[in-house]
Amino acid sequence: MDKLLMRDAAPFSAEVWHEIDEVVEHVGRQQLVGRRFISLVGPLGLGVQAVPVTRLAGEGEIRVAEREPLSFTVLEESFILSWQELAAAGVSGVGFDLAPVAEATARLARQEDEMIFAGLRSAKKVHSAPLGEWEKSGMAFQAVAGALERLINAGVYGPYALVLSPSLYIQTQRVLPETGVLEFDKIKALLDGDVYFSPALKAKEGFLIGNAPYNLDLVVAQDMVVAYTANVGLDHSFTVLEKLALRVKRGAAICVLK
To answer: Fewest C-beta in 10 Å: which of 6, 31, 108, 178?
Structure first.
């Protein structure tokens, strides 16, 4: 793996790579939203090219009618560490600035979530439900209840996950009149599931998902990893990358609030 990623060609120590890898792991865990509610499969290996998606027969006995190959998507972001920063890595008590690593990883995490939500929007047989006047007290609960009704009528039961844009999420943090209860808490109790927010969503958009692994999963060929690209003068160029595929097996398990 190190040879494919050219890490052996980098003119610095294993300790430097360890610090870089720690930042990527920390920022990825902090920033990624889709992975919090979608089951993961893998990693399967950087060389894997496709993964099968099964389709059920439309009529008659319930069975797998076909398996379609789904290609992986490679996402990447580049960054540069200056020779001065890397030189500082060997100075006791000083260390070097890992901000470029963190920023590149955060941008890659945003790419991943945008890919996931684009895949959820475009899946076949996805339901939609109106947001309504979400800004009014109690209307967020009604909108989510309407989306839940659509999933139940389609035979999709829990567990559920609700993902909202940041602005919609913030509006759920209000106390319902004469109850002393947050609208957020009432929504969470209705779903008996988790509620998330992501800046990868449109401003007035949400997703209610029956997120059992037989409905959808995220297949990882290669998880986030840093490759050494080249030297740029005395500085050094890197790419943080990943290879993955969103596998929607049952589009009817997704309802878009918009």
So the answer is: 178
Instruction: With 0.85 as the threshold, say if the pTM is over it.
Output: yes
* pLDDT of 5: 86
Domain span at residue 172 reads 127-210
Residue 91 pLDDT class (50, 70, 90 cuts): low
Task: Evaluate whether 223 touches 201 at the Cβ level (below 8 Å).
Answer: no
In a domain, 16, yes or no: yes
Q: Do 26 and 108 lie in a common domain?
A: yes
Contact status, residue 242 vs residue 108, Cβ threshold 8 Å? yes
pLDDT of residue 96: 76
Alpha-carbon torsion angle 14, 19, 24, 30, nearest 10:
150
- Decide if 1 is inside a domain: no
SS3 237: strand
